[in-house]
Amino acid sequence: MKGRLITFEGIDGSGKSTLAKRVVEHLRGDYEVVFTKEPTQTWIGNVVRRSICSDTDSLVELFLFVADHAEHVVRIQPALRQGKIVISDRYSDSQYAYQGALLADRIDDPIGWIKQIHDEWTIKPDLTFLLLVDPVVALTRCARKRTKFEEIEFLGKVQHNYLRLADEEPERFVKIDAERELDEMEEEVMDKIIKYLGER
Ligand code: TYD
User: How far is the CA of 191 from the centre of ligand 1 (A)?
Assistant: First the structure.
């Protein structure tokens, strides 16, 4: 049996990490679930985190994120082969949305180009929850742990990119209004996952 890959995406402060963790706890009672994230908890992920905290060039940073994604894909493959449900807090759509925004003034159609880099080897998620929130609200939420990617205008561009990705693949993306209470979001996401797993 083939496993399932479910990802959570959204701008910083959208609440996706907390929601993803809750969903994992919920599913664990009934399914074999593996929880993972990008940047990964590997030495490559550490390099990525180091680049986030410095003024690394955006193109260099893209390739670090892509290397980390390649490492991630290798690591989740066995679990998927074993039929497990892999839940990831960020995945390749983060590269398309974030690095797509950062490289917009240097590369024609950056999202298309970054997707092409991934095409031959990545594993596409089966289902992606996209948490949508006003960047102003998002920034207030993450005021305590700002990274260099967190400013209103930039997060607006990233969210715009996410929405474009969702428009391109409406069957994969589920848009979630992330300005609501966590409990409400969790209920909606759990409903969708249970329905999806029931249909497979
Ligand atoms: P984040 O998920 O917020 O990590 P943490 O849980 O450690 O805070 O990711 C860190 C930052 O990196 C965040 O601002 C989004 C950015 N990012 C990219 O720009 N591209 C990517 O491909 C990924 C995975 C993250």
Answer: 27
What is the domain count for the chain? 1
What is the pTM for the complete model shown? 0.96
Separation CA 65–CA 34 (nearest Å) = 21
Which residue from 12, 71, 151 has its CB within 8 A of the most atoms of ligand 1, so it is best to mutate? 12
168 CA to centre of ligand 1 in angstroms: 23
Q: Say which residue the tokens 């409990």 belong to.
A: 183
- List the one residue out of 59, 51, 156 whose CA is nearest residue 114: 59
Low-confidence residues of the chain, pLDDT below 70?
1, 143-148, 200
Q: What percent of the chain has pLDDT over 70?
A: 96
CATH classification at residue 115? 3.40.50.300
Q: Which residue range forms the structural domain that includes residue 91?
A: 4-198
